[in-house]
Task: inverse folding
């Protein structure tokens, strides 16, 4: 198994400075910079950049920008999904974002995990290549359809957020969240289920002016 395969498989230690991975990250970083510097009115140019940076995306995906991805190619983003300003994805592991997912400003999805002990975490010279490197592993992230991830949320590796759920602003999500709930906090916890009482039909005051 290659180091790259270990990275995408998750839960296996791999060398992130081998097999062209630094070059892949640099390529993605440059594409992010290009996207971020392209006016949002230049939709054709932005779509052309995303064809390289985020090839596995559905129809109607919109990234406000700026965006910051490590690879881009390890992200799937479904039809109609949207991300606001400063969307950061460390996609060393697989990141799956469903359809019609709303992502607020300053959201981070982090699949890369470093060892707990500094003796395992600190950089060292790989005796085979002579390159300074370190060891890490990954856990995937899945955000199912119709979720709203509010501003400033951090989602850690290994987390699945169930369809239709809302994650409150500033939350740090370290464990799975079931579908159709409101969850918030650090660490993020389920507050309650979303019910018909939350329908706009029951909040006519929002339409009064």
Result:
């Amino acid at each position: 198994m290659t180091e790259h395969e270990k990275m995408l498989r998750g839960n296996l230690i791999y060398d992130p400075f081998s097999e062209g991975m630094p070059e892949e990250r640099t390529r993605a970083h440059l594409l992010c910079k290009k996207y971020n510097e392209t006016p949002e009115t230049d939709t054709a140019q932005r779509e052309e950049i995303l064809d390289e940076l985020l090839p596995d995306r559905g129809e109607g995906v919109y990234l406000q920008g700026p965006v910051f991805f490590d690879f881009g190619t390890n992200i799937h983003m479904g039809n109609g999904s949207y991300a606001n300003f400063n969307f950061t994805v460390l996609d060393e592991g697989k990141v799956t974002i469903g359809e019609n997912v709303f992502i607020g400003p300053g959201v981070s999805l982090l699949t890369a995990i470093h060892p707990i002990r500094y003796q395992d975490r600190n950089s060292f010279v790989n005796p085979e290549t002579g390159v300074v490197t370190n060891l890490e592993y990954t856990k995937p992230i899945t955000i199912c359809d119709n979720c709203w991830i509010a501003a400033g949320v951090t989602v850690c590796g290994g987390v699945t957020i169930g369809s239709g759920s809302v994650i409150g602003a500033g939350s740090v999500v370290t464990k799975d969240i079931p579908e159709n709930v409101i969850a918030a906090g650090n660490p993020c916890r389920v507050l309650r289920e979303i019910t018909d009482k939350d329908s706009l039909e029951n909040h006519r005051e929002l339409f009064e002016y």
User: Anything to note?
Assistant: The chain has a mean pLDDT of 96. The longest strand covers residues 189-193. Residues 3-207 form a domain with the UDP N-Acetylglucosamine Acyltransferase; domain 1 fold (CATH 2.160.10.10). The chain has four helices and 20 strands.
